[in-house]
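S1.2 Input.
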Amino acid sequence: MITSNLRRALIAVAVALSLSCGGSRPGRVLVLGLDGMDPRAIDLLMSEGKLPNFAKLRKDGAYGRLISSKPLLSPVVWNTIATGKTPDQHGIAHFVAIDPKTGESQPVTSQMRRVKAVWDIASDKAKKVAVVGWWATWPAPKVHGAIVSDHTCYHFLFPQAVAGPTDGGGLTYPPELLARITPLIRRPADVTAAEAAPFVTVTPEELARPFAFEDDLSHFKWALATADSYRRVGLELWSKDKPDLLMAYTEGTDSVSHLFGHLFRAPALSGELAAQQAKYGQAVEQMYLYADRLLGEYMAAMDSRTTLVVLSDHGFELGAVQDDPSKTRDMRRVSEQFHRTEGIAYLYGYRVKRARLEEPKILDVTPTLLALLGIPPARDMPGRVLSEALDFDAPAAIQASYETGGASGPAAAADSRVNPEIVEHLKSLGYTGVMSSPQGDRNIAAMHFEAGRFQKAAEAYQALLAADPDDATLHTSLAGCLGAMGRYAEAGKHLDIAIKLQPLNVEAYHNRAVIYEREGKKDAAIAQYRLAVKYNPQYAPSRQSLVRLTGSDDVRVPRGDAETKAGALAERAAEAARRGDYATATQQLAEAERIAPRYALVYQYQSNVAYLRKDVPAAIRALEKALALEPDNALFKNNLQRLKEQQGKSSRR
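S1.3 Output.
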């Protein structure tokens, strides 16, 4: 017979053994992915008392700025976060793949992911999972739990007002889940005037406009409807299905920043930019407040054994007025150019202690999530467990890999994880066998270069050039690899080809300058760096090199006081144009022309402002004057050709 004292002793031993093997038993893990939320904007709004739930996370949990890596593209980074593997390993390196039947771009699919995601690993360990809206989850793979794929609701890649296949194939796992969540899904037409009012100031007629891809308001309604749909679905699955792991994604914080981020607290706007700000100037701030309310709802749904993890894949340069305000007229401006490397990482709740995270990286997320679930990370995961945030000893990596092929082998074929009818649907679209996209392959080649794997990068670029030998960018990139390996003559040949194919290839001039500099030809290098900056004044690598070699990155050499004064006026005009004040810019450039009538820069800026005012004939006339003064200027030639082509198209309408 076991006495009460012995029973207590055995319990104490069991507890001690439990603690020595990784602490208290695992709880539930709730992951909120908020795309593109910028830590600086959060800090600003938090300091104003506008984000109380984020403030609570900061006060009572662990926090750090999550360090992302290029390319700062959502499907790439979110799949790195979800797998703990680099893009060349997980296979998602861009937004799209190419449909081999039609040659058209298609959003990335779950079939393209070559390694297991954290929800796959957790499922294999009998953990119940739920995944909502995560990138590259269509067609929804089989898991122990539920997946609501990224095709269930809109994201910005869909050119029409339809998300996913019309027959519902692969939208959810299990398939019958779709019927259950359909009442929770909202479409743009469901967004009411009252819901939209905090974000945008528009008329009822504007709000009722049918979807158009070039219409900012259409995209805003889709973003808000989708965010609210995934909010409803995520909370439903969390409370009713009670998964051990929920991973819920929201794209709206990033989409609204792309649409209206240039208006966020931007001062002294005029003209069309001021009109935009009057309509949409509050949208980004209100979306951050929406995210805080979303966070509050999930916090309220937590129990005492829930760990909350809140992430963004990158930050966003908000309030930055573009050099070309015409790019803010529609979705053409969507670009990772405005993404920042630092996102956010918050941990809160069960088994989390107050701490400042020590430079957390996106590769650290999966090992940390596994540790919170009581699952050891694998040795082939390059990230670390964020142990400084945890009040228990994380389990050590005891397994080489969770991929069925071993540490270096591929994961189980994605086809085996998807219902057969979905495989047939993919075949009908031409997806089977498509494991990457051309742009994704370029991104992976660039990653090899950045990591110093120059030979591997060169081989990747050579393979791409075999398929597209007239691509100037590929010749330039290959030249960079060859130059890094000291093969200067070969690199020079590819740069010559690149510049012949594309005279405005700024990177080619820069790479040529780097080679000249390594060969000790300083003056020749400076000339090429200056040419690069002349054609693209924002090209930082060449500007930095000029400062290093000459002490200045100013490539303009005004001749006398007149051109100096005219140049200063032109720069003030450019700043006025960036703020949308085209009238002031035009007046200042007219005065600059009076002062220095033979200064080509003035006519270049006049052409730019005339284009912004939608006066293409005036833009052509000004650029012809500039080209007469600098007949060899490739930028002037290129822009003049484009303007004349645009004028020709307009005259044929």
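S1.4 Remarks. The chain has three domains: 26-429, 452-550, 560-652.
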